[in-house]
Specification:
There is one protein chain. By secondary structure, this protein is α/β, with parallel strands linked by helices. It has two domains: 199 residues, 3-Layer(aba) Sandwich (Aspartate Aminotransferase, domain 2); 137 residues, Alpha-Beta Complex (Aspartate Aminotransferase, domain 1). 38% of the residues lie in helices and 14% in strands. It has 17 helices and 14 strands. A seven-stranded mixed sheet has the order 1-9-8-7-4-2-3, with helices on both faces. A five-stranded mixed sheet has the order 10-11-14-13-12. A two-stranded antiparallel ribbon has the order 5-6. The chain binds pyridoxal-5'-phosphate. The site of pyridoxal-5'-phosphate has 17 residues, from helix 4 and helix 5.
């Protein structure tokens, strides 16, 4: 299918990137379970290896099933290209890798998925990279944290664990002024609820493990490039603007223009870091995305109903859902997430840590797991699990203090979810 601008989201989520298989006519995207691809002849092989012709060499770099998913994600996000990776965390490293070098830093929001805070505050130090964490509602603090060595600004559109909404327009104005890219983790919103590139994001990353696949079957990630950033405007991004010794001095930006980041991601990132998505996982994710809009509508509807009910319960101190009129983030919903505030929020219990533990253990429909964005409703006590590695100050700054439970609302019957929450809250007192 040619992706005309007239096609709506519901059409593109099924058709973008998929065409009947040229060999068999298969209508669903086949799982190309192959490691390598036969070259037509030696000249063909040479052209592929020199990046003079686009094609398939070896599945660490490219695979037709994965390529269909890359095209679908680029289309849904309104980007120029995309690179799939083996997990959301792999996608974050793949997004940073071409931008960073020893001594370089990123400025990141304090409100992030717990694993991302750990990746950025600990693990990336081994590459000589670092992160400065600031409150992204404090725009002056974001500006002040950027220095000459900053190579990216990083935040989530709907941020963990509270479902807070980041003012992407205001943040991209700051990164634009500084001449550095804005990377937005759009996992909790999905392109159905939020399109970060329309708010100035340079790169969009996803854990496809969550809503995109939708049913908790595989891990996967993707980096979508807007194709809009001028990597050659200054000397900050030599991997993209300067000659690449591993490809006979080829300059990615000069040669590939708006696809420079995507080609670099495949030709250098996947080739040498090897964080490749396998075709079976790509197939599950393609299947999931076909119903993304239907599921997201139901997640939003259910979250609104459950969050409103929870807010009125006498065991509950506060609910953070941005869809509620009481949320300080409510006025950002229409602008940043016009189709709803997602399905993720936290609830703070009056009974503190002990009540949270009893509550989580008493739930029957809700599963206590370290995951979100499943068809099933999920809960987690962040302070004792996903945010356990953080200091108490980091936990509070991230919205994951000891009396807070994170809830990911599924697509079950909302009355059943409310009944389950009610019995568990009563048992927690
Ligand atoms: C889950 C998640 C990640 C990490 O993704 P994995 O697929 O588990 O590696 C990153 N960011 C957000 C917002 C997530 O929810």
């Amino acid at each position: 299918m040619t992706d005309g601008p007239s096609y709506g989201f519901d059409t593109l989520q099924i058709h973008a990137g998929a065409r009947p298989d040229p060999a068999t006519g298969a209508r669903q995207v086949p799982i190309y379970q192959t490691t390598a691809y036969v070259f037509r002849d030696a000249d063909h092989a040479a052209a592929l290896f020199n990046l003079q012709e686009v094609g398939y060499i070896y599945s660490r770099l490219t695979n037709p099933t994965v390529a269909a998913l890359q095209e679908r994600m680029a289309t849904l996000e309104g980007g120029a290209g995309a690179v799939c990776c083996s997990s959301g965390h792999a996608a974050q490293i793949m997004a940073l890798f071409p931008l960073m070098g020893p001594g370089k830093n990123i400025v990141a929001s304090t409100r992030l998925y717990g694993g991302t805070i750990t990746q950025f505050s600990q693990t990336i130090k081994r590459f000589g990279w670092s992160a400065t964490f600031v409150d992204f509602d404090d725009l002056d603090a974001v500006k002040a944290a950027i220095d000459d060595d900053t190579r990216a600004v990083f935040c989530e559109s709907i941020a963990n664990p509270g479902g807070y909404i980041t003012d992407l327009d205001a943040i991209s104005a700051i990164s634009d002024d500084a001449g550095i890219p804005l990377i937005v983790d759009n996992t909790s919103a999905t392109p159905y609820l939020c399109r970060p590139i329309e708010h100035g994001a340079t790169l969009v990353v996803h854990s496809m493990t969550k809503y995109l696949t939708g049913n908790g079957t595989v891990t996967g990630g993707v980096v979508v490039d807007s194709g809009k950033f001028d990597w050659s405007a200054n000397d900050k991004f030599p991997s993209l603007s300067e000659p690449e010794p591993a490809y006979h001095g080829l300059k990615f930006h000069e040669t590939f223009g708006p696809l420079a980041f995507t080609f670099h991601g495949i030709a250098i990132g996947l080739r040498d870091l090897g964080m490749t998505l396998n075709p079976q996982a790509a197939h599950y994710t393609l299947m999931g995305i076909e119903t993304l809009s239907l599921r997201m509508q139901k997640h939003v509807e259910n979250a609104m109903e459950v969050a409103s009910w929870l807010e009125a319960h006498d065991a509950v101190e506060a609910v953070t859902y941005a869809g509620l009129p009481s949320s300080p983030y409510n006025d950002r919903v229409a602008r940043i997430c016009p189709k709803g505030a997602g399905g993720l929020f936290t609830v703070r219990l009056k009974g503190g840590y002990d009540a949270c533990v009893k509550f989580v253990d008493s739930l029957e429909i809700f599963s206590h797991v370290a995951n979100l964005g499943d068809t099933r409703s999920l809960v987690i006590h962040s302070a004792s699990t996903t945010h356990r590695q953080l200091t108490p100050e980091q936990q509070e700054a991230a919205g994951a203090g000891p009396s807070v439970v994170r809830i990911s609302i599924g697509i079950e019957d909302p009355a059943d979810l409310i009944a389950d929450l009610n019995q568990a809250l009563n048992a927690s007192k």
